[in-house]
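hey so u asked for the seq, here:
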Amino acid sequence: MMHTVEIARRPVAIINAPLGVAEEWTASEAFKKELTVLRDADGRPLWNGESTPSVRAASEEEIAKWDAARLAGDADEEDKAGYFAVLVPAKDPKEHRSTRQLRPAYA
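ran it, structure tokens below
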């Protein structure tokens, strides 16, 4: 099942994982670090370091964005589980490129 991660009521990422796994992953330091590195269109980190990320069932629109990221990236059908996609326009300053493709999730 797909789950959406929200921070301060803003959907920021979607992961293909059971609820417990998604919650565990969202609470991990690796995921939080990833969200402090990724920057939105205004140059702000996706996570402010204070708000508590929450997890909920993903909407059909969010699932469609995840599928689009999968098709645009190099993940195949076997890679569907355990990957996340960023739902908002974001850049990784280290990579100097947009981040919408699938990225490995940290469990």
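Helices lie at 19-27, 29-37, 60-72. Residues 2-104 form one domain.
lmk if thats what u needed
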